[in-house]
Amino acid sequence: MPLIPSLLLSSLAMATSPAAVLRVVNEQRSSGQVTERILHLSAFSCVLAVFTFKAVVGLWVFQSTGDVLHALWNSMIVLMASAAIGGVFGVAVPGLLKKLGNRGHDATVAFAIAVIILVALTHTLKFSPVPATLAFGLMARHRRIALSQAQQNFGALGNLLTVLLFVFMAATLEWPMVMEGAGLALALMAVRFAVKTAGVVAFARVSGITWRKGLLTGMALTPLSAFVILLLEQTRHLGIGLMDELAALAAITLMLEIIGPIVTQWALILSNEVPNKAET
Amino acid sequence: MPLEPFKKSDPLTLGVELELQLVNLSNFDLTDASSDMLHLLKRASFPGNVTPEVTESMIEINTDIHTNHTALLGQLQRIRDTLVRAGDTLNVGVCGGGTHPFQHWSERKIFAKPRFKEVSAIYGYLIKQFTVFGQHIHVGCESGDDALFLLHALNRYVPHFIALSASSPYFQGVDTQFNSARLNSVFAFPLSGRAPFLLHWADFESAYFAKMEATGIVRSMKDFYWDIRPKPEYGTIELRVCDTPLTVERAAALACYLQALCRHLLARAELPPTEDDYLVYNYNRFQACRFGLDGTLVHPKTHETLSLREDILTTLRHIEQHAEALGGLAALEHLYPVIHEGSDASYLRAQNADGGSLEGVVDAALNRFRESSNKTLM
Questions:
Q1: Does residue A275 lie within any of the structural domains?
Q2: Which residues of A are less than 8 Å from B356 in CB distance?
Q3: Each residue of B106-134: pLDDT tens digit?
Q4: Is CATH 3.30.590.20 correct for B14-367?
Q5: pTM across the whole model
Q6: ipTM value > 0.85
Q7: Cβ separation of A32 and B32 shorter than 8 Å?
């Protein structure tokens, strides 16, 4: 496989699905270091995946056209503009909530609507919704303009959207393509699992947890983020021939949509962060 | 197992235990982090002692035995700094406060330790409801008789400690209108309340404990959830009514107030305690929990009605010489402004009025615990 497509594929494989992880965490009501870390790591991995992906796309545009400006526009500018829009939302939405005197009330719906508007806006402007929403979340949480209650995963609305996401993903995939990419997908999954686990385990002790919890954290990061398909779709207009990667990704996404959350659930149970059924 | 003999210890020595909250920094709810915290803390030496508490969202620390305010405060500050550092590594917030303002008790997890599983089996949901955070102060006693004398002589002063430490106005997401809602959770236990009126250790041992043990209800002193209980294996009495304050400075000041008060009581200058003192005990205790420093007391001997605030102020002035003798004047200096400006409960309510959410209240408690070394709070 040529260099650029393999770089694109590996950058996409970095992303762990925040939606899947959050879904499992909420369902299992788990809490502890493994839970805490997979929530943060899945968000970080998505940021890094988008960043790397855009950088590789920039590299590809530069290689094929020799136009630095065009290359930069497609990578760095898009990323920064998207993040900036998200950042503005992150200040404006809590600020508005505070001003409206909506204090102490559940702000889940307000945040959910803000996310929808943000995605629509960035999508229309041909920016990237992923860094925008992530920047929004980071800003809203850490600037602490208004501390208000919002349910993880947007509660019932989030559950509904997760189902829609699953249906959407399955609908975009084509079976012949899945079968075709299965071999590459399996190899990629194995490497991805090994690298993620090894990476997290290596820093487990230094960051204050046991080797065991490190191992379980690495395992729990298995679900692949569905947004990789979206990224590829978005890149289509640039004319990158990504059929091979798409086949493998289709296969890997399908497999990990099903296997990923189960692995995460096992990891959380093994780490004793899920409440004992007999006790509750 | 019969009650062990009362171990003689140096009179008026002090030890402090604090139950602290472990908070998720994303949503400010409690988080089940005690096993992870304990694992990390065990790697390096800890300036004191740290142990698990009954649910995974609590951690308990205790100091060594101290004789004066400076040393006690110094150790508490070192403990606080170590905890805050460990919390930073794991992204876990550590704070004081008698209750978490909006946690849901049903989401708590019992810490995996046989005794906790056992009490959970006996008391059921009461134990998860018991995810409340108290300060326990041990005072060394020379003999069992001294311990029982102090225990009962202190009955009239128990509301002082409730009002001064009160830091649990919110419970399960609502303002309870109490200043210490935590003590209501303690009162649900069948063996809570106050110790029987016995002034001699021999009587306590044979006429009370042995009989209670024979009924099969209790096996050790640990089964009693009294406001003040003797701890024969340490040779101390343990005052258990205080909410964990928002700062370790307040915790040290409360401990040294108790120490000076005990020195005053041991001088036997007041009328000796009697069974009838307890006629007003629960009423006074309620006043302190409900209204804090604004409460009123009925004096057990004279039956006159007193303002709790005034009574504390008078007592502080009265025992100043004892505090001075023990090197604890700084503790009283810390408490005087509290009487005027209000307890931690008032502080937390002010934060809610200001920031507008209970998440903001927890955030303020986290910052106050962390930054309490700031001079303005001393």
A1: no
A2: 98, 101, 103-104, 146
A3: 888 888 888 888 888 888 888 888 889 99
A4: yes
A5: 0.88
A6: no
A7: yes
